[in-house]
Amino acid sequence: MIIQVSEIPAEGLSIEGPQSLPAPFSDSTWDLDELSLFIERDGVDVLVRGRVAGRVPQTCGRCLEQFVVRVESQIDSRFVPRPQNRRDEVELAADDLDLDFYSNDSLNLVVLVETEATLALPMKPLCRADCRGLCSVCGGNQNLVECHCGDRAPDSRFAVLKDLAARLT
Fold it and tell me: What is the count of structural domains for the chain?
């Protein structure tokens, strides 16, 4: 959904419900559950506040099983007009890190919603906090089967390094 900045009413613009953005994510497996945005102008700047929540399929970082994670993000963004330089590069100062840009009097809410949802994803997705992961010997999912492999025998090629620390001191 593209919002024309010049057409935002003085009292602001409210966007409610996931049906307001029919295709908010480039990945069709992601689902938008909640959307509540309030958009207002502050001179040439645009303020966007609200909340976005959805469900995103992930792969567990320990056991490699598929699961769905719920993402929620509070949005509080300020958009300013993109500077008109000869090049597309913009040098940001420390105060500019909370800013984003819009250009050609257009603000793309789909990009904002997808970015906020992506930033809310866990850095290391886990299907559950106590996930036991995969067996290092047989590769079995230890959440599903009790593995009796025991410890893997040390690689004989590294046997000469076994007492290296003691020999160096």
Answer: 2
